[in-house]
What does this fold into?
Amino acid sequence: MGDFPRFVRINEEGPREGFQIEKGPIPTARKIELIDSLSKTGLKQIQVVSFVNPKAVPGMADAEEVVKGIKRAPGVRYTGLWLNEKGLQRAISSGKLDVTGSISLTASERFLQRNQNRTLAENLKAQNATIATFKLNNIAVERASIMAAFGCNFEGDIANSRILELCERIFELAAAHDLNIKILSLADTMAWATPLSIRRVVGAVREKYPHLEIALHLHDTRGMGIANAYAGLEMGVAIFDAAVAGLGGCPFAGHRAAAGNVCTEDLVFMCEEMGINTGVNLDALIESARLAEDVVGHPLPGAVMKGGTLVKLREKLAVA
Amino acid sequence: MGDFPRFVRINEEGPREGFQIEKGPIPTARKIELIDSLSKTGLKQIQVVSFVNPKAVPGMADAEEVVKGIKRAPGVRYTGLWLNEKGLQRAISSGKLDVTGSISLTASERFLQRNQNRTLAENLKAQNATIATFKLNNIAVERASIMAAFGCNFEGDIANSRILELCERIFELAAAHDLNIKILSLADTMAWATPLSIRRVVGAVREKYPHLEIALHLHDTRGMGIANAYAGLEMGVAIFDAAVAGLGGCPFAGHRAAAGNVCTEDLVFMCEEMGINTGVNLDALIESARLAEDVVGHPLPGAVMKGGTLVKLREKLAVA
It folds into this structure.
């Protein structure tokens, strides 16, 4: 079946995405409980917190305590998110995270302004400074990301030319700092993507940069998350961000009832049913998804945790 | 973009799928209100009721009254569902429906037994009798359908060979009754399909019957509905059943918290955003989806009705 990858790596972002957007205060111990549960599922990377202004995102005020409390499982990378120098310093100081460097650009200047209060020029300058800090701290920078790559609630559709222009900026920065950027993450931050625009943007980037590995960060606000992931798989994309139970959303994206990220266990289900290995134990992950619902105290959008897996049904039928 | 159809026909099945599975009694007038609302969206076909045993499906006991009450809009076909001769007679007697004939087989014999209390042989016999009734009443039979075509909770995976075998039975029946079957509907009754099995089954049928138009009836119980529809679109499938707001499910399929059919407005959103014409006014359809939530009295799974359309956002941005 053509370009499907044989193995997919899923970066779990549920704790970070979920805790940052939930209204009710979630006890630190329960956050840690969910992360520890996710550590036992076979996921190889879990983004556990964001180091952002606690006034803007009160749900992340306990980021350091969460990091301190988790039980690190061998073979799992624990990451954090930050949007500026101060956040990066907090991530480094937490002492327990796998801090990796990244060049972070945004396709929509209006969203950049709203989300980080920066122009593109200011952001490029900030990226320069951040890269210098990464180097000072011996942190490798092998990944770049473009937010709002498929459209923006404040700027509209994003043209391929804009994405390719940002890729140029990324490789200029990389050249200036002697970095080897291996992965480009394209984020559908405000859920504008359809499978066709996934094809369009991934195709355009791949045509110009055939050796760059592409990762997708997908949201499900308009119900396209899994279909967009499938379009990515068809193009050989093998790295996806996802959130257990469909936790999350973006607090700055201006949605009233924003659905969260593409749901990890639904994505794992699709991949495994199509013969694409994820390394994840789906039953264990569903347990984590149910725990996530319990932790946030309301139903979450994940489907497979309610509809059930097919593996168990097949086993039952084989016995019957 | 290859095989995408330019126009997609969506058969709305929300009223039938939804009213048959909802627990609470829904007043007949409110059912009619929803159907009349759907009539104004540009949808060209609406399945409004099923004529089934009211003891088994109490939510459909008022089927005749619902049919009597709706305001037929010009250019819209109003259909009903039935599973046996008695149901068909009720549909004909209702006097107001577009009764079209269909040959209905099921890929899973165990499900057939459970759902209709028949063996495949008994079902073929029953189809023979039903076709005779269609002919007696001058009802054209141009469509065949295969339920549980992608897998079954009681029988497991369904092989291509099984589907092709059922296609042979269909064309034998058609030959015996001098029918011209133009459309084959493949139903993922219990949500076993993935985009890959859509490709597999649709591909196998198309290879053997290149002139047969294929329709897909998809459920979203495991979150694959829209991705499966996309896989169908990629193969040129241009007819889909769907349910407004994601109403529905199958009361006999044995799910505890079964999600419903693929959501009409999410499917319309995907198609229109990808340049595939549906003839449906998405804003009007979203109004119907919100009405559906009000009628059933609980949240429904549709995403676009919560996440919002992009057309309006683009308009706002163009003005700003």
